Structures are given as structure tokens and as C-alpha cells.
Amino acid sequence: MDKKVIWILVIIVVLFLVIAGAGFGTAYYLTQRAKNTPTPSPSASICTSCQKASTSPVSDSEQIKADHCLKQANGGTGNITIADIAHYSEVTSPITFSGTANVFEGSFQVKIVDCEGNKIINQANAQTKAGDVGVSNPYTVTISYSASYAGHYAYIEAYDLSAKDGSVQDTIQVPVLLK
Predict the structure, then answer these.
(1) Is the pTM of this model over 0.90?
(2) Which are the contacts of 92, defined by CB distance < 8 A and separation ≥ 6?
(3) Which CATH number does 37-178 carry?
């Protein structure tokens, strides 16, 4: 056989293996993510502030209270995202979620705060997986809370501290019902 034909066949086989490997890796990632995604409540209602499906069966007055739970606009700046938790999801401890973050040195903070905003239920440091500088990199965080908070509204907050002056930035909040 001609050397050109052999090299072409080798390149085709290598490309096939790379593409097939990426497909298996993606399938594995998606199945792992699906295992950790909270299950929405069957009696979901519409969140009046964000117009997304709520996953907690709440009355209008409870919904208004939960909407006012947030001090920061939902969605933040986009530098930190929380992908696996829908607004007003019913969550159990420990809470595991993932998303992406484009933050200094890949490090940021996560906390669970009561709805009044005056009590930090738990907090943790988070770290993105190694990746390129200046782009969003994936992360997974697990944070727990005491069973005494079951039945209370709270929000999960992720934020970064400025490398320049230490101020809080890139805040995102997701309201949840602790179960």
C-alpha cells in the first residue's frame, strides 16, 4: 500500500476515536448531572418576579415573601452561573449543584442564607476545574445545612471577592425551599 493511503487511514481512525471518546464523555457528564438535578414539584406555579416555573407549591402570599427573599437580581452578571437548581426547588441536604464561573484564580464563595438575609446557614469555598484564564470554567459544589432549617425558604448565593479591593461582586442568588 502507498504511504499516503496508510497515513490517511491512520488519521481517519484517530479522528473517529477522538469523536467517539468525546461522545462517551459527554454522555457520562450528562447522566451524572441528571442524577444530581433536583426533581420539580408536581404542583409547580409561575414565579411572579422571574416568570419561570416555580418548583415549590406555594400560595400567592408565600410567593411574594419568597420573591422578596432575593436582594440581588436573579442571574447576576453571568460570571457565575448555577445550572442545576431551578428557582424555588425543594432541596435536601447536602445540596450538590454545578455551573460555570469566570472568576479570579477560579475561586469563589457559596453560602445558604435565610430568607430574611440576616443569618448565614452555611458557607463554603468553591473552585472551578482547571481551564483557560478569562473564560467560564465548570465547577461542582456540595453544601449542607442542619435539619432544623427544613421547611424554610432560603437562597443559595454564589459570589466572588474582588482581587482589587476585596469587595463582593458577581453575586447570583437562587431561592430554594429547604426540605
Answers:
(1) no
(2) 179
(3) 2.60.40.2550
